[in-house]
Task: inverse folding
């Protein structure tokens, strides 16, 4: 399954999506209320298929006739989404069960096999209307589902999930592997001596975002000026997110072109975000790892993660001595056993590469250690 995202042309017909999402929100909240009421009365979980039959009966009543404006498979997807939410809650108790949503926050609906048709080129038929979208690239395979979603700015997007044979496009093998250490001062420190700095897009645009945020807070709630100011703020945040995504995709492709095996440390990124705040969110470590994993699987490369509890920064890469008294903010240190002077991040990348490469069974991969501060 491959997902493709396209932006719809803005016209008067896209306003009909507002009605659809409003009805979907009404159905969603009604289903959540039924789940809660059923559990309070019987102490059991409400079956999805029983709920779908119940909704079919409700649509015949005069009170719920407006539900017929929404495709039946769209309603089925809503009940399945709620079911997945409850299953995740039962499996992981730290997650919240599905709760009620306001119409302002409910901004998408999904169509499966019916209710839409791809007309080729950059046209798609949703319901009884034809819409155009910016087709930046052709999708491969047979489209299975589409999701129509509105962002905070007010622009509508379609997400097409296509099923097809996606054989990995192998890039030329370089025979090299490397270890990578994340850091707050330096985004990535590579075991070949390279240091990659992050542009910190949120920090660069902080003045614009701060000014736009103040403008929103000064406006009267419910006024048209507040809506305009809120969209201006959302547009600034979207610009930062797009810049970060573009930079991370380009960096992921560059690293995959350069190395065959990439070794990383499995860090507690959520804990780092709670401790260091918005800077970790601006760096986007988790987003980058997800993109890199996608690029590696696409081009038949390998990404290895080592245990997060391995003391990569405190272990001497020469004699394997573990310096437990290493300070948290010390950027360099001297090994008490062998006397080697270490750069904290570079030494960690050496150790990550050594442990990660040892788990790879392919003998053709050779270390790419060319720079050393010893």
Result:
């Amino acid at each position: 399954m491959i997902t493709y995202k396209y932006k719809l042309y803005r016209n008067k017909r896209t306003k009909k999506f507002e009605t659809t999402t409003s009805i979907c929100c009404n159905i969603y909240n009604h289903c959540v209320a039924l789940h809660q009421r059923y559990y309070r009365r019987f102490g059991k979980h409400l079956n999805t298929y029983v709920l779908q039959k119940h909704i079919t009966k409700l649509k015949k009543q005069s009170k719920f006739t407006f539900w017929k404006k929404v495709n039946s498979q769209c309603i089925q997807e809503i009940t399945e989404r709620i079911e997945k939410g409850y299953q995740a809650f039962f499996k992981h108790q730290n997650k919240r069960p599905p709760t009620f949503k306001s119409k302002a926050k409910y901004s998408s609906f999904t169509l499966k096999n019916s209710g839409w048709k791809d007309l080729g080129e950059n046209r798609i038929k949703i319901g009884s209307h034809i819409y155009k979208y910016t087709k930046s690239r052709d999708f491969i395979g047979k489209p299975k589902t589409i999701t129509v979603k509105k962002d905070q700015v007010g622009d509508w997007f379609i997400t097409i999930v296509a099923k097809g044979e996606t054989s990995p496009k192998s890039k030329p093998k370089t025979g090299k592997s490397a270890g990578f250490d994340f850091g707050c001062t330096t985004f990535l420190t590579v075991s070949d001596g390279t240091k990659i700095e992050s542009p910190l897009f949120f920090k660069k645009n902080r003045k614009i975002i701060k000014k736009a945020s103040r403008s929103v807070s000064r406006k009267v709630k419910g006024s048209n000026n507040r809506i305009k100011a809120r969209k201006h703020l959302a547009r600034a945040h979207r610009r930062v997110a797009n810049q970060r995504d573009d930079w991370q995709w380009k960096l992921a492709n560059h690293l995959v072109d350069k190395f065959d095996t990439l070794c990383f440390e499995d860090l507690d990124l959520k804990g780092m975000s709670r401790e260091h705040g918005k800077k970790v969110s601006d760096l986007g470590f988790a987003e980058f790892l997800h993109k890199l994993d996608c690029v590696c699987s696409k081009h038949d490369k390998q990404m290895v993660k080592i245990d997060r509890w391995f003391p990569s920064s405190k272990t001497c890469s020469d004699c394997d001595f573990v310096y437990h008294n290493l300070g948290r903010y010390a950027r360099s240190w001297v090994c008490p056993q062998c006397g080697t002077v270490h750069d904290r991040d570079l030494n960690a990348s050496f150790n990550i590469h050594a442990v990660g490469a040892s788990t790879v069974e392919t003998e053709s991969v050779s270390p790419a250690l060319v720079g050393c501060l010893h």
